[in-house]
Amino acid sequence: MARLNPDVLRLYLVTDRSLMRGRPLAEVVAAAVQGGVSCVQLREKNLGTREFLAQALMLKKLLAPHRVPLVINDRIDIALACGAEGVHLGQGDLPVDAARKLLPPEVFIGWSVESMDDVAQSAALPLDYLGVSPVFATPTKLDTKTVWGLEGLAVVRTATRLPLVAIGGIHAGNAREVLRSGADSLAVVSALCAAGDPHAAAAGLRALCDDELKAR
Ligand code: TZP
Ligand code: MG
User: Fold this and answer.
1) Which of 113, 120, 198, 203 is most exposed, with the fewest beta carbons within 10 Å of its own?
2) Residue nearest atom 6 in ligand 1 by C-alpha distance
3) For ligand 1, mutation pick of 43, 113, 138 (most atoms within 8 Å of CB)
């Protein structure tokens, strides 16, 4: 399994086209990348396979010159077909072991953990990072189980050496405390997708990440 440098995950944009105020996906992602996003996950819950693949290929082309990795949510087939650098799986998706067998060794795998049982299980799985989901309650995803809170995130930090990607309700106002509670990465949806100026929003969050993480 390829070892993932957690710096690559530092500011992690997870897409949601429904929050983009009518702006094209490419426009919002390009602005966010210019601002300092270091990793992009394409998350599509309502697209057919061909449309999903078309969006993935478009983003792959957009991100490649910036050396920003593309992560595909849920779909191993789409990740393989577009040459994505990573996949993100949840508790209801293809099991991690099965995904690892299907993917080339250099493709990294992230997994959402929703309980301490999941964290315990992660130790035996071929994983590259854990998504701590959700850190705060968020209207962007309503079907969540436990809300970890900063305290829960800190407990997860003590239980694993895998890079931790914090997601759920993260914005410039709480980002520092999330990083101080043990996260290696901030994953955001609305803080960038719904921002009036995604470039400026990304630049602000990135400066904050770089400042908090410089001592590590
Ligand atoms: N997984 C856990 S919370 C979440 C996902 C995809 C949504 C996070 O959205 P936001 O707008 O950054 O709170
Ligand atoms: Mg999933």
Assistant:
1) 120
2) 141
3) 138
Mutate to test the pocket of ligand 1, among 18, 20, 167, 186 (most ligand atoms within 8 A of CB): 167
Alpha-carbon gap, residue 173 to 168, rounded angstroms = 13
Between helix 198-213 and helix 25-35 the angle, nearest 10°, is: 40
User: Which ligand gives the minimal distance to the CA of 99?
Assistant: 2
Is pTM beyond 0.90 here?
yes
pLDDT tens-digit series, residues 22-43: 999 999 999 999 999 999 999 9
13 forms beta bridges with: 40, 188
Tell me: the pLDDT tens digits for 62-77?
Answer: 999 999 999 999 999 9
Residue partners of 75: CB distance under 8 A and separation at least 6? 52, 87
CA of 182 to the centre of ligand 2 (A): 23
* H-helix or E-strand spanning residue 87: strand 86-89
